[in-house]
Amino acid sequence: MKQILKSLVPRLFQPIRIADMILRHEARHGKIISGPFAGSKYIGKSVGSVFLPKILGVYEKELHTAIYALQAKSVASIAIIGAAEGYYVIGFSKLFPHAKIFAYESEEEGRRLLAQNCALNNCNEKIKIEGLCDKKAFWDLLKNEAPQFIVMDIEGGEDDLLNRDILDLLKNSSMIVELHPWIAPGIKEKLIELLGGSHHCTFISSTERTFRDIPINQFLARFFSRWLTFHVSEVRPFKMEWLLAEPLT
Question: So what's the pLDDT on residue 34?
């Protein structure tokens, strides 16, 4: 019966299509509309993740508290390892207009879109775009630039980059690291052991989105809740977890 009713309703008027149109209408100005990066201009495409949560400003919303807390600090240099098209690059560029940002992205398409986002936000001059961040590149970055804040999302590569060889170089850096234990088994325990003596480690877990998370008219958000929350979910393969590591000194 469900399939019969669905076939009788024109595609344009199916609730999930209406929900998509509502969200894209809200995002029509090409600017992030909520959250810590609100007001940043954004191209209409993403790489390796879904687009709508980013333009709506609810992408990885669980990290907002940590990001807002960072604003109280003086940050001169930031590294984004796994920058994709630049959500965090342009976001932190807005929050810290005087900081130098090092953006590493292994995919050529990601670097191309990242450059476009930087151009849209007039921040090209302070963003250095690089390719793959391997062990040598990470060592050189820490040794020569000593970034005060690092965001890392490299699909299990955190197991390779974060090791005892660079521990002393990390002691003054705050970090947010997305964990991928299905790719790097035991990564959580490894990082607790590795960083426990130099950093305060907090783990942040992903939560399900509700209509209250959607930055639009709340009557519409509630009425189309079932379909809108689908569009702002991030289509993750598993429940996600991030490490927030802050220096003890």
Answer: 92
